Amino acid sequence: MSFCELFQIFAVYEIPDMHKIFWIVALILALGCDRTKNIIPEYTENIFPNEEGKFRIYFVGDTSYNTQGVDFPISDVFFKKEQLGGTEVDLNDRTVRRVEVFRSPESAGTNYEFSFDRLWTQYVQPVEGANYFAERTEDNQRFVKLQFPVFPGVRWNTNQFNNQPSLIHTYQSIDTTVTVRGVTYENCVMVLIKARRKEPFTDEFSYEIYAPEIGLIKKYDRNLLFNESTGDGFNSAESYIYYEEI
Fold first, then answer.
1. Of 26, 50, 119, 143, which sits with the fewest C-beta atoms within 10 Å of its C-beta?
2. pLDDT value of residue 13
3. For the purposes of burial, counting CB atoms within 10 Å of the CB of 172, is it exposed (0-12), middle (13-18) or buried (19 or more)?
């Protein structure tokens, strides 16, 4: 029954005003729920793979600085492989997936020479009809990476389960086409972490992009601070540029 059909019924039959209000509100809520359900694409449910054996290989650039200043970056470039392993029980009695992280030197190119680097875990448990999180525990820090269901404007604090300052993530786009290292990915979800900001004392921009059935395909985090009282004002201790590309 459409909205117009309902009003025609109200006009023909003598329905008490309070009853009219009740049914109008009920219809609005029902239509709203259906509309919300329809605008959440099914592929967004698959941007955080959790099946054993899945893996991704990234090209990583990790730039830091010392007291020489912003014009003298220290770059660490390498390949990283993340492979989903078996399960274990965490301190919250949840069954989590092991994330085995390997590293290969840039000099080896795609003739990878991976060696084990560290062990992380991840957790996701879909809940029908309710919000739920996808989490990663990296270097003993528990992060909320994604919130489901996925739709533009949803915001969450990635640090809500650790002792770090609040850091809000937002779904900037849920259907974008992205090319990473010559490969094009469709139906990608962009998570905005820090909006682009370039001011006299701050130059920052941070985001992540996820693709269906693959997961994270690109990560970029730039944080350059100029708040020191000596020299060029560059805060080398807290400045960095980090990126991962699948």
1. 26
2. 37
3. middle
